[in-house]
Amino acid sequence: MTALNTLVPYQAQPVPLLLTPGPLTTSPAVKRTMLIDHGTWDDEYKALTETVRQELLSVAQAPAADYTTILMQGSGTFAVEAALGTAVPQDGVLLIAMNGAYGRRMGQIADYYNIVHVDLEFAEDEPVTREKVLTVLDDHPEVTHFATVHCETTTGILNPIDAIIPAVHARGVVTIVDAMSSFGGVPIDTAALGLDYLISSSNKCIQGVPGFGFIIANRTALARTEGNARSLSLDLYDQNQSFDQQHGKWRFTSPTHVLYAFHQALQELAAEGGVPARFARYTRSEQQLRQGMLALGYAPVIAEADQSPIITSFKYPSAAFDFHAFYAYLKDRGFIIYPGKVSTIDSFRIGNIGEVYTGDIQQLLRWIKTYSTVRVQSGRKID
Ligand SMILES: *Cc1c(COP(=O)(O)O)cnc(C)c1O
Q1: Going from the N-terminus, what domains does the chain have, and what CATH number goes with each?
Q2: Which Pfam families does this UniProt record tie to the protein (predicted)?
Q3: Given ligand 1 and candidates 75, 159, 180, which is best to mutate, with the most ligand atoms within 8 Å of its CB?
């Protein structure tokens, strides 16, 4: 048998730092948990599943009497699809407030399920507003469900769910938030907001690895969804029944390594000081990045007041800017950045979630400074 401490990464090369919005850079301890194989039938594994479900409720500020956590195999989109496809009945009408690719993806999911949806579209650099949402609800009394994205990762804009969700909830509309890229990194008081479904995944701000999504669901709202699902594997109601009635048993094969890694990541979140401390770290990094980039001539796409501490979009500094050369230069020096996703502006993105600290951002800014200075002086690309 191979001793665990003799195992080394399969490539003995420097590990790059991911400045991307998930998968992201995880801690050595999170990676180490995945060196052990586990069976899904095991009581210890089921107990760990229950622990993770409970701990997520506390991160979400969602009391166990009123809320349940449903883990769902797959990437984050699988969890969004499970939530929409289970929460919204065949005769429901969904209002989607969107200002980016992930909001539009909810519209695509609704199309697959033949869910009637009203789309409230905002420009990608404008936040969703409560005022417009309420106006559309006035105009469309047939709406039964409302969905929006918290941090729209397309740009890094943060939508003000604290203002929007309580107002929508007060109208008796079921509320659904894709908090994929913000949950764990930005405080969300699920119960106080009157949020019925909060969706996130293992590889974002909890700082685990990819493999499952999860939904924090209000028990009263979920209880009304029996038989709604138009997909067997993505039936949230059924998945929850299995967890609740079989002491943490997933319905189908689950990503065992990912769950162990995620449990370790949750312990590290608590050790850091919980969501408020992580929010403070991400905010510091984002400020440092934003100010440093501005000083180097890279303008952010999103106004500071609407910017999330998760990921920042920067405009190309000139029409001649070669993103691929810039990307390759930084990659050679150990930093992986992210292409832009804004439809109308040439941009790139730099994330600062994960095991990323002030010193890393400082080093990144130094390389970008060197790159930018040499490029400007020589008038040509460098590699
Ligand atoms: C990451 C992300 C998703 C899910 O994307 P997957 O590629 O399916 O994991 C959904 N919404 C937002 C806002 C995200 O950031």
Answers
A1: 3-19+274-378 (3.90.1150.10), 30-270 (3.40.640.10)
A2: Aminotran_5 (PF00266)
A3: 180
Q: Is 153 in the pocket of ligand 1 (CB under 6 A)?
A: yes
β-strand pairing of 174-178 with 197-201 = parallel
Rounded CA-CA distance 355/27 in Å is 6
Residue 201 near ligand 1, beta carbon < 6 Å: yes
Tell me the average pLDDT across 151-168.
Answer: 98
The pLDDT assigned to 378 comes to 55
Cα dist. 223→67, 68, 150, 153, 236 in Å?
Answer: 11, 11, 25, 31, 11
193 and 168 Cβ atoms separated by less than 8 Å: no
Whether the pLDDT of residue 2 is over 50: the answer is no
213 lines ligand 1 (CB under 6 A): no
For atom 6 of ligand 1, the residue with the nearest CA is 76
178 Cα to the center of ligand 1, angstroms: 8
Q: Is the CB of 100 under 6 A from ligand 1?
A: no
